[in-house]
Write a structure and sequence with these properties.
Order of helices and strands: EEHHHHHHH
Number of helices: 7
Oligomer: single chain
Distance between the termini: 20 Å
Strand order of the largest sheet: 1-2
Helix content: 55-70%
CATH architecture of the largest domain: Orthogonal Bundle
Length: 129
């Protein structure tokens, strides 16, 4: 988390970069001093222009498959949820909102474990809202 310098007399403003972009592939690639072509090769992309697919991933034109996302995790040494922070946060919000909705559904066959799991997810939605 980065903290910007506050103007005199005001509170500090916190900037969390993990909330601002759908993915952090480009910054992580540059941190490792790898080219898009090199990352494409590591991903197992065959043929010419390996970097084009990596470029599309970095610029949010496409979302990589699960296999590719896991390969990015291996390449960068960062969890998928961190590399694709914006997408992860959106998925988490969506799941939690649906769990909250499920709390109000009538279930024909009650199951204590299922109910507890749904309550836990819905509570997270309330806390993170």
């Amino acid at each position: 988390m980065f903290v910007s310098e506050p103007p005199s007399g005001s509170r500090s403003v916190r900037f969390n970069p993990m909330k601002s972009l759908p993915n952090y592939l480009k910054s992580q690639r540059k941190h490792l001093s790898l080219s898009q072509e090199e990352v494409g090769f590591l991903l197992g992309i065959c043929g010419m222009n390996k970097g084009e697919k990596v470029c599309r991933d970095e610029n949010f034109v496409r979302e990589p498959s699960l296999q590719e996302a896991l390969a990015y995790q291996v390449i960068h040494g960062r969890p998928v949820s961190e590399l694709f922070a914006g997408l992860y946060q959106q998925a988490a919000r969506d799941v939690k909102a649906r769990a909250k909705f499920m709390l109000y559904r009538k279930v024909r066959k009650p199951n204590q474990r299922r109910q507890q799991a749904i309550i836990h997810l819905a509570d997270q939605a309330s806390v993170n809202s």
